[in-house]
Write a structure and sequence with these properties.
InterPro entries: AAA+_ATPase, ABC_transporter-like_ATP-bd, ABC_transporter-like_CS, BCAA_Transport_ATP-bd_LivF, P-loop_NTPase. This is ABC transporter related. Belongs to the ABC transporter superfamily. The protein is α/β, with parallel strands linked by helices. It has a domain of 135 residues: Rossmann fold (3-Layer(aba) Sandwich), CATH 3.40.50. Helices cover 38% and strands 26% of the residues. The chain has ten helices and ten strands. Bound molecules: adenosine-5'-triphosphate. The site of adenosine-5'-triphosphate (ATP) has 11 residues, from strand 2 and helix 1.
Length: 232
C-alpha cells in the first residue's frame, strides 16, 4: 500500500533518516521500533508530508506522493496522529471529533458510531471540554479524531506513551480493533513487546537506518533479537 524507497530526511546538517526503505502492507499493522532518536518520528513526518525528503521517494497505492502537500495526503487517506496528543482544549470532545471530519463530504454518523464503539469512554464525555480530560483520555480523543477523517493508513506515534500498564493493554486492543475495521496501521512504539503482540510486521531503526525487519512473530521468538534490539 505504501512503499518507501530509500528516503533520507535531514535537519540542516543532521541526518535523521538515512536511505531507508519499507513496504507497508495493506490492512496490516506494521510497527516501527527503535531507541530515542533513531528516526521514527522523522519517518512518519516524511510520510505525512511534514518533512521534506533530501533523497528517495514514497508511493501510496501505486502513485508517487512525496511531492504532495500534507493536506493532499490527508485527502488520500494518509493520517498522522502525532505524539503530542494535541487536542483542541477549549472545545468539547464532540467538537474535537467533528473537527477531525472536516475533510469529509458525506455523512459522518457512521464514524461517530465507530469511534464510540472503540472508545466508549469518549461517548460518556462527549460534552466535556477536551482540556479537562486525563492524559489517557486525551490520547484516545486524538486517535478518535484522526479516525473521523476515515483514514486508509493511520500512523500513530507512541500512542502508549505515559500510560499506566493496564491502559497500554487497552490502547493496544483499541488499535487492533481499528485495524480490524480495515484501516492499515503504521505504529511507532517504544513499548516493543506490546506492539509486536498486535503487529504483523516490524522494522527496527537504529541511528536512522533499518537494521532489522521481519514478521512480528519471528522477532518475538528470536532470543538474540529480543536481547539485542528490544531491551531484553
Ligand atoms: P524519539 O523516540 O525520541 O521521538 P525518534 O526515533 O522518533 O526518537 P526522531 O525524533 O525522528 O527520532 O529524531 C531523529 C534525529 O533527528 C535525532 O537525532 C533528533 O535529534 C534529530 N531531530 C529531530 N527533529 C529535529 C529538528 N527539528 N531539528 C534538528 N534535529 C532534529
Amino acid at each position: 500500500m505504501l512503499e518507501i524507497k530509500s528516503i533520507t530526511v535531514q535537519y540542516g546538517p543532521v541526518i535523521a533518516v538515512k536511505e531507508i526503505s519499507m513496504d507497508i502492507r495493506q490492512k496490516g499493522i506494521t510497527v516501527l521500533l527503535g531507541a530515542n532518536g533513531a528516526g521514527k518520528t522523522s519517518t512518519l513526518m516524511a510520510i505525512a508530508g511534514l518533512n521534506d525528503l533530501s533523497h528517495g521517494s514514497i508511493f501510496f497505492e501505486g502513485k508517487r506522493i512525496d511531492r504532495l502537500p500534507a493536506y493532499e495526503r490527508v485527502r488520500k487517506g494518509i493520517v498522522l496522529c502525532p505524539e503530542s496528543r494535541l487536542v483542541f482544549q477549549k472545545m468539547t470532545v464532540m467538537e474535537n471529533l467533528k473537527a477531525g471530519a472536516y475533510t469529509r463530504k458525506g455523512g459522518i454518523s457512521g464514524e461517530f458510531d465507530l469511534v464510540f464503539s472503540i472508545f466508549p469512554k469518549l461517548k460518556d464525555r462527549a460534552k466535556q471540554l477536551a482540556g479537562t480530560l486525563s492524559g489517557g483520555e486525551r490520547q484516545m480523543l486524538a486517535i478518535a479524531r484522526a479516525l473521523m477523517s476515515k483514514p486508509k493508513l493511520l500512523m500513530l506515534d507512541e500512542p502508549s506513551m505515559g500510560l499506566a500498564p493496564n491502559l497500554v493493554v487497552e490502547m493496544m486492543a483499541a488499535i487492533k480493533q481499528i485495524n480490524e475495521t480495515g484501516v492499515t496501521v503504521l505504529l511507532v512504539e517504544q513499548n516493543a513487546f506490546s506492539a509486536l503482540k498486535i503487529a504483523d510486521y516490524a522494522y527496527v531503526l537504529q541511528t536512522g537506518k533499518v537494521v532489522l525487519e521481519g514478521s512480528a512473530e519471528d522477532l518475538l521468538q528470536d532470543k538474540t533479537i529480543v536481547e539485542q534490539y528490544l531491551g531484553g
